[in-house]
Write a structure and sequence with these properties.
14 helices; mainly alpha; about 525 residues
Amino acid sequence: MDILVLVIVAAVSLFLGFILTSTVLRKKVEKKSENIISEAKEKGEIIKKDKILQAKEKFLQLKSEHEKFIQEKSVVLNQNENRLKQKESVLNQKFEEQKRKQKEVDTIRENLNAQLDLLNKKQAELEKSHKKQVEALEAISGLSASEAKGQLIETLKDEAKTEAMVHISEIIDEAKLTANRESKKIVIETIQRTATEHAIENSVSVFNIDSDEIKGRIIGREGRNIRALEALTGVEIIIDDSPDAIILSSFDPVRREIARQSLHKLVTDGRIHPARIEEVVAKTKKQIEQDIIEAGKRATIDLGIHGMHHELVRVVGKMKYRSSYGQNLLQHSKEVANLCATMAAELGLNPKLAKRAGLLHDIGKVPDNEPELPHALHGMKLAERFKEKPEVCNAIGSHHEEIEMETLLAPIVQVCDAISGARPGARREVVEAYIRRLNKLEELALAYPGVIKTYAIQAGRELRVIVSAEKINDNDAAQISLDLSKKIQDEMTYPGQIKITVIRETRSINYAK
């Protein structure tokens, strides 16, 4: 029981001690809280004062900047106002000046109107006076004014025509002298600077053999070999009594060359029969075609011509096996190309373009099939098909005057073609054809009335026509020369050019007795 009481007493003591302790602690906490609150209030007041000071400083700074900005704007506005005042002053001055000038213009216009009225009055008076004078002159001369004017105009026309003809004649004579001198100089220099070999070819080729025994092998049993060879090559093979020789005849040099090389291979190999002949001819054709292409390439490379279509290169190479009046066509075309380049350079034109036109001018002579067009026009069509320049195409088509010449390149090609063909030794003709041409020249001239005699001289390159002085006057003689030249161009074929000279002379004969 005592223990229980002791325990209760202890518990009550502890409880009372805890209550006392809690009260003390609460008072301490409350006191501390009050201290913290007072410190916070003091710090808050300090911060508040700092912020108020900062706000005042910022306000003063903004106020200063604003005052500065307003001051600058005021300066700008003052400047603009001054400028506007100056412009207004200038405009006012101009306006006053304009008003002053307008007054002057009005004054001048009034003066002009007054002068114009005065002139109109004087013009009317002059017309009346002129009319009276014309009437008086008509009465004196017996002609009306229009008739007199017509006679005066006709007289002036005749005088002007006479003077113009004199001046034109002088200018033409001077131009002829200058042109002839310059053209001769250019042509001579061009010919001197260009030299080309001429290869003369015939319509037959001779194939040499070692013995007549080979002739029999070429003919074959019942002529099978020679018939096969002729059928495959298109060449007539003439085997006669000529010792150690076989003649190959054909108008086409390419076919003759194929036949010649095929015969050479067959004779060298020794096997000659139709099947072998067909094989060798086929190989030879391919080889000749390759040689043609190589010849065209060499020609273009030698002349420095680039960018030409491969078909045109093949046609150029094909000219190696073609001749015109005995003149090798490829050599002739190369010579014409060099002549054209030299002459174009002398005249200040494009020498490369001229050289190209000169090389291609006769490509129409070696067609793959027989065209109905003249060779110049056919060559022009070929060049156009393979995208050659229009100047080159026109020069090709017009070098025999089938079409009109459009550029200076065309007459250069025509002249150089004539120079190459007319050079001594460049071309040759069969004697019979040459004689026939000369006879036809003289007959054409004799057909004109008033012609007494005709002479074809200088190997047919000049035709002299002597006419009767009683039947033909000077104008008729010039007309005969022109008509005859056109007729020869239309009806005859000839190398180079032909000069037609019509001679008319009068003779006065008296005798001293």
